[in-house]
Amino acid sequence: MSYKVNNVNWRRETDYIEEIKEVRNKVFICEHRIPETEEFDNNDINCEHVLVRNEDDKAVATGRICENGKISRIAVLMKYRNTNAAQKVIQQLLSIAHRKGINQVTIDAELDNVSYFTNQGFKPVGGVYMETGLPKQTLSCSVNSFVCPHGILH
């Protein structure tokens, strides 16, 4: 499946913001039952966002990266979770980090997803903790670990 990936500035591209909110609402608020006040925090305006669209130009995935290299809010609509949509989000976020000179990125992964990220070169940092009722693990990785052939993330 082919995707179009857009970088989104929260302050300037309001059309994309509504689509990002829609994807995150479906995944985090409806599916995971995360309170809206926790999902849409004050960090959105300070982050660079990625929006992935399918061949019908429908928003299917999103994610963000903060100035400190923290990757978060990766959301993929259920129908697209067995595709490479998440890979597109992560690759673009890592590209943004590389462009900004961020050498180390972190992600707070749900415990069920830790092995996915460790297979991509991330390493656990600290212990498992609970956030919004979900067990999570902070993982860290050098951005340079991702300067590799296309398809390394799956």
Automatic annotation (TrEMBL):
Annotated keywords: Acyltransferase, Transferase
UniProt GO MF annotations: acyltransferase activity
A Pfam family of this chain: Acetyltransf_10
Domain N-acetyltransferase: 8-144
Coiled-coil portions: none
EC number: 2.3.1.-
Protein name listed in UniProt: GNAT family N-acetyltransferase
Taxonomic source organism: Psychrosphaera algicola
